[in-house]
Input
Amino acid sequence: MELKKLPLTNILVEIFSVVLAVLLALGMNEWRTNKNNEDLSLAAFDKIVKEVKSNKNKLDTLLVNHKEILVEIDSVISKLTRKSNEISFGQIVFEAPSATAWEAAKLTTAVNYMEYDRVEKITSVYSTQKVYNDVSDRVFQELVFFVPDKDREKMKNQFYKQKVYLYNLISIEEQLIDEYVKFLDDVKSQGL
Output
């Protein structure tokens, strides 16, 4: 059996070629992964922006309704004070703002690939929204499960209590709308 001598330079060139090819393949794979992650985060952010716009529109409508009900509660209290028997007011509307896009971004880890400042602003919006939802649930229970009392003074007190709950809800709605506007203005100023 005869051993052939391979030139050292050929071996080094082959090794270098293989290492270079592997490094290029790894680099391309890393680039493709980063690009996919960036696309995922941009798509998630776009959905979050659309969700915030939709939630703002929803809350604008709710705020109008709640302010109208507040005026009607004043009217009912006035009628109770005058001992009027005609006591009625419109229907109060409750609807929770959506958080689906934000939750999906967290579950798909798209949020991991977003810029920190962007995540911080989104978190601020959805944190305020969570507070709003908690207060809204409480007010909903107080207002919707209201049982009129035959005693006019007790009923007036119940309406005063409802008025306070509704004032608090309106205050938080206005804060949440401000958060939405601030977020959307920031997005618009960045051209996103």
User: Anything to note?
Assistant: The mean pLDDT is 88. The two ends are 71 Å apart (CA to CA). The longest helix spans residues 8-81. Helices lie at 8-81, 100-107, 116-144, 152-189.
